[in-house]
Amino acid sequence: MKRIKTTKEAFNKDLAALLDKFDVFAPSTKQGKLDYLNITDPEDITWTDDLPYKSPKETVFPRVEEIMRFTKDDVVPTANVKPVLLLGAKPCDIESFDVFDGVFTSEKGLYIDPFYKERRDKMLIIGSGCAAKKPGCFCDERGYDMTFSDKCDAFVALDGDDMYIDLITDRAEGLFSGSDCPPREVNKAPETTLKIDAHENDIFTTMPWEDWAMSCIGCGTCTYVCPTCHCFDIRDADDKGEVTRCRLWDSCMYSNFTLHAGGTNPRTTQAARYRQRVMHKYVYLRDNIGITACTGCGRCIRLCPGGINIHDTVKDIMGRTGKK
Amino acid sequence: MSENVNTEWTPRIVTFLCNWCSYAGADLAGTSRLQYPPSIRVIRVPCSGRINPQYIIKAIADGADGVLVSGCHPGDCHYLAGNMYARRRFAVLKRLLTLAGINSDRVHFTWVSASEAESFVRAVKEVTEKVRALGPNDLGGME
Amino acid sequence: MDYTAQTNALRAAADKLLSEGTVDCVIGLTPNEAVGFPTPIVIRNPEDAGKLVWDENCFTNIAVYLLRTTGRRAIAAKACDVRSIINLLAENQLKRDEIYIIGMQCPGMIKDGEPAPGCDQCPSSVPGISDLTIGSDGSDTYQDEKMEPHGENVTEWMENSTDAEKKERFLKEIDKCILCFTCRQACPACYCTACFIDRKADPWRQIDADRATKIAFHLTRAMHLAGRCTDCCACEKVCASGVNLRYLYRGIIEFVSDTYGFTTGVDPDARPVMNSFTSEDSETGFLGR
Question: Which chain B residues touch C195 with a CB distance below 8 Å?
Answer without folding.
Answer: none
